[in-house]
Prior knowledge:
Elements: H1 17-63
Amino acid sequence: MTDDTFQDFDDDAQAPAHLKGMITAEIDIVRDIMQVVQMFLGETMVTGVVLLQELEKNKKDEDK
Length: 64
């Protein structure tokens, strides 16, 4: 059994224009979703970490 899997593909083949447009649109949608997630979760996580650091600092100061 030979490993000629990729010999069936044409080296000069190009994707149709509508397929390129569909892939670009999907990438844009994923990018937009990630920006929205970053806005809502990213800042919330930073705020939560700062709050926990302040609470830990206050707890250490009370223990002294």
